[in-house]
Amino acid sequence: MDDQRRPTGPGEPSSPAPRGGAWGPESPATPRPTGSGPPGSGPHPSPFDPPQTADAPRGDPFAAPADSPGPAPRTGSPYRLPGSPADPASSSAESPFGSTAAPGSSYGSSGSPYGASGAPAGGAGAAEGADRADGADRADGATSAPWERLGAEGRTDTPAGAEPPGTPPVPPGAAHSGPADPPEPRRRSRKGLVIGIVSAVVVLALIGGGVSWYVLTMPQPEDTAEDYAAAWREGDYAALAGLATGGGDPAAAYERVADNLGVESTEVTTGTVTEDGDTASVPFEATLTLSNAGEWSYDGTLPLVRADGEWRVDFSPAVIHPDLGEGQTLVRTNEWGERGRVLGADGSRLDESPSGSVQMIVGEVGTATEDMLGDLGPAYEVGDPVGVSGVQAQYEERLAGTATTAVRVVDQGAADGEVPEDAPTVGAIEGTDGKDVTLSIDPAMQEAAGAAIVDQTKPTAMVAIRPSTGEVLAAANVPGGFNRALEGQYPAGSIFKIVSYDALLTSGMGMDAPMDCPRNVTVGGQKYKNAGDAAYGAQSVLEAFATSCNTALVQQVADRLDGAALVESAEKFGFNEEIKAGLPVFEPSLPTPDSVPLLTASSIGQGQLLTSPLHMASVPAAVAEGSYRSPLLVTEPAPEGRPEPTPIDTAPQLREMMRAVVTEGTAKDVGFTGEVHGKSGTAEYGTAEEGEELPAHGWFVGYEGDIAFAVVVEDGESGSGAAAPLARKFLDAL
């Protein structure tokens, strides 16, 4: 018998090629041998038959010639899997590679590596397998290519001409009992090819990633340009110089321009980089804010070069401004407009007032000197008008306005001298006239206050305040030369008792509490007495306040208060707080008393307490209004950060007590008319000679309607005798 075998792939057993039947020429009409399909299925093509064309018969390309005698047909495949039944009849459907898998077989429960469970090789399952000969997956998840399934399941190769191990011998006459469908040549495994392709892709990706990382992390000119611009914006000229190359000193050049122009802030924005090999350029726009002028913007270019892998700005003066050459810098010249005015509450010009007290508040306008230029800045030149005191100095920038400024190019040596007339102008900022400053001073009130004290032979100050707003209506001083009204520092004396009684009432003492006013009393080792060595005996709270009895008060303070409680009440009336009046003024203070003697001394306005006439006028104003308001002197522009009014809960009781001072107390003989409320005080100061009394200032504070006031007469000795009559004179003039 002619034993022909078809070529096999590596590890694949050679297959005997039968001379006829399914491996030889076969017409589509050739009936299939028994066993090639299920009963009644009819002829079906094998899944291993080569595709047929219109002009070629279907057959195996490895089959024997058509005229070769073939063996008798057999009913089964020459190959069976280990454990497969030898008898074809033991299985209703047999695979070309063996029968239905036995339990434990590597083919699982389906019984066939490519067909449905139990489907014979040549039946309907085979036809479906033929449709999927390209290896597509079946709906049930099985792979239609049996050689791929066998490879996946661990098939064992068999030498040519040998049966697989464990296969029972084929009975005589059954070797070719039927035309078995031959297995198609096993496809080459694609696993190695896929691994190779994936590996190549990974290698290329790694190489590409490394190149990308290098490209993305290598220095870029735009990074240097932005860092340079950021350093310029922040005024960090040392950092800026570290990013530059070329000649000169970049840090010194930039600092010189900033000083010459009075640069207050800088904004720099960069544009799109243009790169050409080892050179690049980046456009920028710079906006400089100049003192007393405004903003000046211009365009320029940052040239960059690459050296040793780093990008740097190729510095020259033209980098600062495109019109600068070597050895040149920028300076400014200024022309001032009309200066603003200082106005009163009624709109009149206080800067033209004949009152010396008003002029102390308004201040003076002088001319800039060489020594002043360092503080004034480059907007000023020697001889320019400038405020030198008071409101004129405090509000110089507002009153002066902004100068019309020209930015010019000069040689560096000319920056500190005269600017040549032909120096090129590279920029200009239009100036503005100055703005007015409005004060709360009422000229009529100011005149009344001045007239009330003008004849004083001792230094005297008077302040009037509107309780409902805290606005300062008048501030008068005699003599001139020192603004005692706003800046004087004095102990308060007995006028501070307004605060002390607020603390006592707040602590729970009622208006009906009994008071005792002996001639002398010792509290905490400290001896106290009353003015004129007076003694009133048993008193009510109202009477003790009206007569300003020291001995009655210190006893109650020692029994009911501590240092913190007294300071808490004092701070409700503005002590230990900055007075944001719009001008610098003295800030009243009361340190927390840390002993009984200091506590009791503070309660009568002595000890470490200091205040001013301006502040003490705000104390009766708080009683009148029911809330403490910090004094306000400048109304336009209004000062920032002014505190909110502080409620005074004891104001009703304090009003009654202050009225009693005028009607039946220390000021009853002054001759006030109308509903005047007040408090007199004598504040000791200095050091007494042996056997003599301490010198004392005389105070009187009070209010009538919406006008509160304070008067102090230095060394006046008596509040009711020296200060109260001046207050009456002031009120009578209104």
UniProtKB/TrEMBL annotation:
UniProtKB keywords: Membrane, Transmembrane, Transmembrane helix
Parts of the chain that traverse the membrane: 193-216
Biased composition regions of type Basic and acidic residues, renumbered to the chain: 129-140
Superkingdom field: Bacteria
One GO CC term on file: plasma membrane
Domain named Penicillin-binding protein transpeptidase: residues: 461-731
Biased composition (Pro residues): 40-50
A GO term for molecular function: penicillin binding
Protein name per the record: Penicillin-binding protein
Domain NTF2-like N-terminal transpeptidase per the UniProt entry, residue ranges: 220-328
Region (Disordered): 1-188
